[in-house]
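Researcher: Structure for this, please.
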Amino acid sequence: MSDEADVNLEEDGKDYDAAGGGKKPGAGLLPKLLKFIAIGLGALIFIITVTLLTVNIMNKGGKSQTVIPMTDSYAAVKKQYSMFTLIGNVATRTRDPTPWNVSVDMIIGYDLNDTSTAIELTARLYELRDSVRSYFSSKSVSELQPENEARIKNEIRERLNTTVLDKARVRIVLFDKLDLYEME
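Model: Predicted structure, token format:
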């Protein structure tokens, strides 16, 4: 055997620096960098795949789990009315032994754009005022308290629809003012 067989520095496939006999700087960096990039891309693809599968399973194939209930409180829009305000202030006394004064300014609501109702309300204005006056004069102070206001409005609406009006229909009664005060 010769000396060349014992020391075979350049035939093992490694790149060595010719001057110093050591490895070239950066020669093995590219394969390691590519290996880490491939591992990162594989992990990213795996994470995206798992996330998409989880979301699809949770959403049952794309159907949203959030169900918005469509009840009247969500779907219904508060109805609008045309307002009849020509009644003005009606003042009277209650039926109590020591009478109290009642002063009411009332607004009548009817179906929007119903011109026939507006015409009938205007034509029967004095009958409306008289009916409202007689209603309040038949009540006592205890019946006209604020906690009874909804019942009062319903009674007036029914009274006007049944006794005063022919074809027109009152839909809502509002009070701009409802005052009770003791006579002096």
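Researcher: Any notable elements?
Model: The helical segments are 3-6, 29-58, 72-75, 115-123, 125-137, 149-164. The chain has a mean pLDDT of 83.
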